[in-house]
Design a protein that fits this description.
534 residues; Immunoglobulin-like; 3 domains; eight-stranded antiparallel sheet; six-stranded mixed sheet; 4% helix
Length: 534
């Protein structure tokens, strides 16, 4: 309730609102020699809840007899526009027949310039929410300090709320107006684009882009093809050249992301000042030239954009590069598209779900394929599973495996025995860890203790070696010590079944071959070895 009343009070005190726009409905006026750029459209509206009466004074339209005064700050209007306003041709500025404009006296140096406007139509009442439009021609901006922002003020005069007496409406309103350079050539011969790709990884927080600015003006006259970026310390005292880099901030598919940094502008000798100048929905980074810099045909400089916090949604976003005050050319803007994908290309590398900085193809997350063909070599960081496995080992194959050539295990790596005993009733348990290891000469070494029950018989399975240590043919393991309850060693024989046998199910098993005592308690595999022939 309090907020609504405050709005009513504000509109009572400031009942007149206005806008001053160019032909494209933008709050812009131009530094230009083109007459098409000299037209502005003024719209005046009654935003209060009461009708407003426009009262006529005595005589012609003047500084004392008018309804609205449009005031420009010192240095805003071009000399040509001021000369027109102070001449007998001032009346030709208005293209709207119901309005009149006063001829001005020449303003003092560094003084504001005020246009006095009077409504000459029959209906002097401006109803609630009613607006009036005025077209102004011949109004252009002074070169001054080049592209810049300014304020324009609308001051009501001889206006009263209908039916009310006393003081009239006097409170003014202001509007921001941007002065844009349209002197020189309209199209600047620069190419602006990304180097090394324009793809960013969705949701990443450390992405980089490099934007390259290149002079593509090819001319027989080298001087004509040179583009000058004017510095703040230029001897010409002309406005400095400015580049403004901006982007759409947010997490939508058309927005780039939530943050970025311009870390460098690379080209020697190139002296610039880089600073963030605005935030909001389209943050801006100003790149201002400190010294004059000339860019010849074919030359370029790079704007390095880093630490980009990329939107998580796939889509195309834009990076904007606006340029102001480049001598001989209009102000303008380049729009460069950026692709946000779960796949990113960095130079010759491709990353899926991750930046591609370490390999030709880099993938983060699970990968499934019907056929995988490796022609030379492959390195796997964690584990490889072929088939479905709830708890994968380093390498696990669910189903048949066909190998043409050798399988070579990592030399010097001890691997746990995978199984113990298979016949029902045969009691075989590891007393300590039972392991195998293949050395650099192809010899497989065993170590560990087996606890063997009295029910063990000849040809019973004892333990199964890791596939990497299974031999191609059978091997007898002689001089295997068995320990009785009195701890006296008794020697026996075990056999490793190789891959040349008919029974595939027995490959890699160490089998009970022969022991010369009736009741073995433990079998020590420490020091037992055989020459692998795979």
């Amino acid at each position: 309730m309090a907020t609504a009343q405050a709005l009513v009070n504000f509109r009572k005190s400031y009942p007149i609102d206005f806008s001053l726009l160019d032909q494209d409905q933008q709050a812009v006026m131009y530094i230009s020699e083109d007459k098409d750029d000299w037209e502005l459209h003024l719209t005046i509206a009654n935003t209060s809840s009461q009708p407003i009466t426009m009262i006529d004074g005595q005589g012609e339209t003047s500084a004392t007899n008018h309804h609205f005064a449009l005031r420009f700050r010192p240095g805003t209007l071009a000399k040509r526009a001021i000369d027109l306003l102070t001449s007998d041709q001032a009346k030709n500025i208005l293209k709207t027949t119901d309005w009149q404009i006063a001829k001005l006296l020449p303003p003092p140096p560094n003084a504001p310039v005020t246009l006095y406007l009077r409504y000459a139509g029959a209906n002097k009442v401006l109803k609630q929410n009613q607006s009036l439009s005025i077209s102004l021609s011949g109004i252009s901006a002074a070169p001054g300090s080049g592209s810049r922002g300014t304020q324009v003020e609308l001051i009501p005069h001889q206006l009263k709320f209908e039916g009310e007496s006393g003081a009239g409406i006097a409170n003014s309103r202001t509007q921001y107006l941007h002065v844009t350079n349209h002197s020189g050539r309209k199209n600047i011969p620069l190419h602006v684009g990304f180097v090394g790709g324009n793809h960013l990884l969705n949701g990443a927080t450390d992405q980089d882009l490099k934007l390259r600015v290149t002079n593509v003006f090819k001319s027989k006259d080298a001087k004509q093809s040179t583009i000058t970026f004017r510095g703040a310390n230029s001897a010409t005292h002309e406005p400095r050249t400015e580049l403004v880099l901006s982007y759409d901030k947010g997490n939508e598919d058309w927005e780039l992301g939530t943050d970025l940094k311009v870390t460098a502008v690379s080209k020697k000798p190139l002296h610039v000042n880089v600073q963030e100048v605005s935030q909001g929905d389209r943050p801006e980074v100003l790149i201002a030239f400190e010294q004059d810099f000339q860019l010849n045909y074919g030359e370029s400089f790079d704007i390095e954009i880093s630490r980009i916090h990329v939107s998580s949604k796939t889509g195309q976003a834009n990076v904007y590069l606006h340029y102001n005050n480049i001598p001989g050319y209009w102000d303008g803007q380049f729009v460069c598209a950026v692709e946000k994908w779960p796949i990113v290309v960095q130079g010759d590398n491709v990353g899926i779900g991750t930046p591609a900085r370490k390999a030709k193809v880099q993938v983060a997350g699970e990968t499934k394929t019907t056929t995988l063909k490796v022609e030379e070599a492959a390195t796997f960081g964690e584990s490889v599973v072929i088939g479905d496995s709830p708890k994968p080992s380093k390498l696990e194959v669910i189903g048949d495996l066909r190998v043409t050539g050798r399988i070579t295990a990592g030399e010097g790596e001890w691997k746990d025995v995978t199984k113990f005993g298979t016949r029902e009733g045969a009691k075989v348990f590891p007393f300590t860890t039972v392991e195998s290891m293949r050395d650099e000469k192809g010899v497989v070494h065993l170590r560990g203790l087996l606890f063997v029950g009295e029910s063990i018989k000849k040809d019973d399975f004892i333990c199964l070696l890791d596939p990497a240590h299974q031999p191609k043919s059978d091997h007898n393991l002689n001089q295997v010590p068995g320990l009785t309850s009195s701890s006296d060693p008794v020697w026996g024989t075990l056999k490793v079944r190789g891959r040349t046998g008919n029974d595939v199910a027995q490959i890699g098993w160490i089998k009970w071959e022969h022991f010369e005592f009736p009741s073995v308690k433990m079998v020590s595999l420490d020091g037992v070895k055989f020459q692998s022939d795979i």
